[in-house]
Amino acid sequence: MRFDAGELRFAAELMDVVLAHFEDGAHGGFFFTADDHEVLIGRPKSFGDDALPAGNGTAAVVLQRLGYLLGEERYLVAAERTLRAAWPAMLQYPHGHATLLQALEEFLQPPQIVILRATPAVLADWQRQLAAVYAPRRMIIGIADDVPQLPAALQAKASLPGGAAYLCQGSSCSAPLRTLEELVRSLAP
Prior knowledge:
The protein is α+β, with helices and mostly antiparallel strands. It has 2 domains: 5-108, no CATH class; 112-187, Glutaredoxin, CATH 3.40.30. The protein is 47% helix and 12% strand. A 4-stranded mixed beta sheet has the order 2-1-3-4, with helices on one face. Helix 2 runs antiparallel to helix 3 (73-92) and helix 2 (55-70) packs parallel to helix 4 (98-108). The longest helix has 20 residues, at 73-92.
């Protein structure tokens, strides 16, 4: 997967707009319309999946993943508030809330995030070898050592000569792992 700092910044800016204009600050979750939308009889807020995944479930998943990646606590809090607001609906009809259940699973058991920092050649080798192992709850993010203007949480995960990997679970990350062998040993169950 190709890392793009600009796309990451755009995703964070988009989530900031969602929080500022769509969040239900009183009860949690997100409305279907923005706070500056024309006045409607009601402001809908749906938790159930239909032909498309529920916006609230998608928002919770994205907020959690960005929150862990960027160390952004307010994203994690908004995701948790969404899950709490949707809890009665998930209990009543779980198979109608698959996207929220995915977000709940990641809330209860955060995905493993492997952040790789190295030259493009080393990144390609490490990513190829890690991709050969089936790990559906693992996200691998390879960031070339020359990428400018990283967010602070990623900038803190510095590239070292020969490459470095950081193994993160939720908001906690390991010290830098200096070799692919050391990383593979750390990933072993």
